[in-house]
Amino acid sequence: MRTELDAQIRSVLKTFGLILGTGNKDTLIKRAEELAQGHPVISSLVAKLAEVRRL
User: What stretches of 1-55 show up as alpha helix (H) in DSSP?
Assistant: First the structure.
């Protein structure tokens, strides 16, 4: 399930030209949230996916 969530986060960001890169649980989520800053729709979506991913 985590792998699928990671892929979803990556694909959402990639759709908007934001490349996430590799990383473990903590760095992946942190980097995704940093990339999504300044994009209101993307940041809220990434925040919800990250919330589920942290569980």
Answer: 2-15, 25-36, 40-54
